[in-house]
Amino acid sequence: MIISLAQRATQAQEYYFSVKLAEVRKLMAAGHDVINMGIGNPDQSPSEATIAALSHSASQANSHGYQAYKGIPGFRQSIVQWYKRVYGVSLDPETEILPLIGSKEGITHISLTFLDADDEVLVPELGYPAYRAVSQMVGANVVEYPLLEDQGWQPDWEAMQSLVNSKTKLLWLNYPHMPTGAPATRELFENAVQFAKKHKILLCHDNPYSLILNQKPPISLLSVEGAKEVAIELNSMSKSHNMAGWRVGWMSGAKAYIDAVLTIKSNVDSGMFLGIQQAAVAALQNTDQWHQAQNDIYRSRLDAAKAFLKALHCTYDESQEGMFLWAKLPENVLSAEQLVDELLYQKYIFIAPGFIFGPKGQRYIRLSLCMPAERIWQAVQRLG
Ligand SMILES: Cc1ncc(COP(=O)(O)O)c(C=O)c1O
Fold first, then answer.
1. Cα of 209 from ligand 1 centre, angstroms
2. Per-residue pLDDT of the chain (384 residues; tens, 9 = 90+)
3. Domains in the chain, CATH or no CATH each
4. How far is Cα 108 from Cα 91, in angstroms, rounded to an integer?
5. Helix, strand, coil shares, percent, the chain, to 5
6. CA 106 to each of CA 50, 80, 237, 319: distance values in angstroms, whole numbers, following the listed order
7. CB 253 within 8 A of CB 234
8. Spatial separation of the C-alpha atoms in residues 252 and 232, rounded to whole Å
9. Where is each Aminotransferase class I/classII large domain found (predicted)?
10. Is 324's C-beta closer than 6 angstroms to any atom of ligand 1?
11. How remote is the CA of residue 2 from the centroid of ligand 1, in Å?
């Protein structure tokens, strides 16, 4: 006998990487040396001070209890100082910050907090799959908004006007953009805030890549005047601080939005381990040189990744930011799915097909830079 599932569980699809990485593991168990350029999982360590802070905290007798739902004051204070230093934005540590167990969980809490069944959510036609999946899980309707490929994958604000109606509640934005690597610009953020105000919709900006291979100083959406009325921003320490497995990030925004999300969140988890919060405080003090060194490592991998794409006759934009390379397939390749499977089963190389980020990605692939350059060169050699 099997007890029936909720409708949302029958409709939701298992996360692509969860399925595909099981295939990768199977090949590895059979003795194949799979080069995994699929997922954006940083291979470098957090700073030494970060690890020392976790280790020290874990050794203290009073570190192991439940923590405040809103995080320790020291963590919120460090986030505020970091925001000021990195983005020049002032926030109130008491009321405008909510620590999160990764920004992926924040996407769920925000959706639970703001969306009713049948509300409409604007998601980019190419983007992080969780925006779409979670909107559907809470019964909202997903409306894809177009990105202009010939204008650096910026949202088509003109076309978006016609997608808005009285049910439109929330808009997901993410620049530097994953998967295309399109950089953030002040003009884009100003347009977004103006659009959200005009149509009275909540603008949720997901900002995990602003420090990775950025070609200009990083920007926060909250630096736009008046943004806090309609916008919230997610930041993650997964990529920028090499802490993906630690599960730590936060949400910034006006008190009313933070309080509302906290009400939902406090019914779901019971705070974040003190050691991780204390380690995050140390990580947020990483020097500019530390971040520079991480970027030097990513940059040193670009030549190999580009050689890999050239061997596949793919084309790509040089202005990409973040830890991936997004590339277009040549016309003679039938589909991304076929190429990905051929590479996996014939060459033991795993890359991400573009369609997992939305239908517009049918003829694209995404390479991750999260492995040593030698390993990427090895993949180039396997292509012959
Ligand atoms: C655009 C985007 N948002 C959010 C996340 C999730 O970040 P976190 O590890 O903080 O949950 C990712 C991870 O790949 C991402 O690419």
1. 9
2. 889 999 888 887 777 888 888 999 999 999 999 999 998 999 999 999 999 999 999 999 999 999 999 999 999 999 999 999 999 999 999 999 999 999 999 999 999 999 999 999 999 999 999 999 999 999 999 999 999 999 999 999 999 999 999 999 999 999 999 999 999 999 999 999 999 999 999 999 999 999 999 999 999 999 999 999 999 999 999 999 999 999 999 999 999 999 999 999 999 999 999 999 999 999 999 999 999 999 999 999 999 999 999 999 999 999 999 999 999 999 999 999 999 999 999 999 999 999 999 999 999 999 999 999 999 999 999 998
3. 7-45+288-382 (3.90.1150.10), 65-283 (3.40.640.10)
4. 23
5. 45, 15, 40
6. 23, 18, 13, 29
7. no
8. 6
9. 33-383
10. no
11. 34
Instruction: Calculate how far, in angstroms, residue 5's C-alpha sits from the geometric centre of ligand 1.
Output: 28
Taking the C-alpha atoms of residue 308 and residue 124, their distance in angstroms, rounded to an integer, is: 28
Which tokens in the block code for residue 285? 């003090």
**What's the 180 CA to ligand 1 centre distance in angstroms?**
14
What the block records as the tokens of 203 is 């603008």
Whether 41 and 375 have beta carbons less than 8 Å apart is answered as: no
Pair of tokens at residue 48? 């030494």
Verify whether ligand 1 is closer than 6 Å to residue 207 (CB atom): no
Residue nearest to atom 6 of ligand 1 (CA): 104
